[in-house]
Design a protein that fits this description.
The structure is a single chain. The protein is α/β, with parallel strands linked by helices. The chain is 33% helix and 26% strand. Helix 1 runs parallel beside helix 11, helix 5 crosses helix 8 and helix 5 crosses helix 11.
Length: 415
Amino acid sequence: MGRSILVLGAGMVGTCTALHLQQRGFEVVLVDRRAPGLETSFGNAGLIQREAVEPYAFPREWGFVFKAALGLGAEVHWHARGLWQMAGALWRYFGHSQPRTHARATLAYSRLIGHATPEHAALIAAAGAEHLLQREGFRFLFRSPAALEQAVARARALDDGFGVRHHAEDATALVRAEPALQAAQSRLAGAVHWLDPWAVRDPGALVQHYAQLLRARGGQVLQGDAQTLQAEGSGWQVQTEQGPVQAAQAVLALGPWADQALRRLGYRYPLFIKRGYHQHYPAAATVRQPMLDAERGYVLAPMQRGMRLTTGAEFAPIDAPPTPVQLKKAEAMARELVDLGEPLPEPPWLGARPCTADMLPVMGPAPRHRGLWFNFGHAHQGFTLGAVAGRLLAEMIEGGRTWIDPTPYLPARFH
C-alpha cells in the first residue's frame, strides 16, 4: 500500500494520529467537517488523566441505578429513544462491567493510560503549547467520611498496582490548598489529590496547536464530509471543499460519529454515546486545580474563559435536542461549594463521548477493507489517550513491531 493517507476526524485522536503518521514519512491529509478541535475535544474538562487506569464501568450498585432511572441525581440523564437505540450495546456494557471482566479491561486500558503524559509531552513541546498546561494534578472531593475512606483505600490499591501517585487530604488540608472552598469546609470530608494528571486551560486550543504543527511540517488540513468516504480504485476517496481527495489508505477517527460511517461500510459494532454539557462562569471564585465532586458527578475546571462546569453522562441520540437537566442540577450542587457568579450569556455547550461495550478503544485494520484503519471508541479519555492512540495506530500502519501489544484493541475482536 502507498504512503498517502486520509485521516478522517480532526479531534484529539485524529490529529495525533495524523502527526504520528507524518513523523513516519506518510503524506497525510486530515479531514473534518469543521476546523480541528471544535467538537468533543473542545468541550471536555481539559484533563490528561494519568490516574484514570480503570475504564468507566456500568454502575452495579442498584441504589445508584434506581436513582438514575428516576432522574434523581446529576450523574446520569437519559432519553427513552436513546436507551432504545443503545439497548443492545448497553446490555453488553453491563455484562463487561462485572468485576472479573472489568479487571481484564483495566489491564489493557492501563497500558495506554500509563504512556499518556510522556506522549503528549513530546507533541506539546514540538507544538509550542506549554503555556496551556498546568501540571499540579486533579482532586476528587468527598462530602462524607465513609466515601473518602473508601476512595483512599482504592487510591492506595491503584498506586500499588499501577504506580498512580496520590495524596489523601482531610478537609483542613483541602481548604488550605484550595481557599475558594473555605466557606464550604463543613460540607467536605476531604479529597484524594491525584498528583500525575495535567490540566489544559483550553483543550480545543491544544488540538489546534497540534494541527498547526501538522501543517508546518507539510501536512494538509481540509474541511470535508467524512461520510462520503468510499473505495476508489486501489485506495480511498473523500469529498472536501477543495474537491475529491484520494489516498492509498484511510483512517476513521470520527469519535461519536464513527458508527454512521461504519454502518455505511457494513460494520456493526456495539457502540453507544454518552452526551455531556459544559458552562463557563467568568466571575467564579478561583479554584487552582480541576476538581471532581465525586459524590455528585460533575467537574469544575479553571479555563481561559472562566470556571468550566462539566456534567456526567446523558444517554441520548447524538442528534437529540439539548436537554441540560444535569447542568442545572450540577450548578446548584457546585454553588454549595464555590461562589460561581453568573454564567456567560450563551447556550451551554453539548458534546458526545464515543463508547464501546467492552470499554476498550477500537484501533487497528478494518477486517474487510484493505487500506482502511480504525481509531475510535476512547469514551471518556479520548483527550487523554489521543497521543498514545495516534502512535500505536501509526506503528500498526507502518508495519513491524509496535511498542504496545495492540491485540486487546483490534477491531477483529468483535468478529
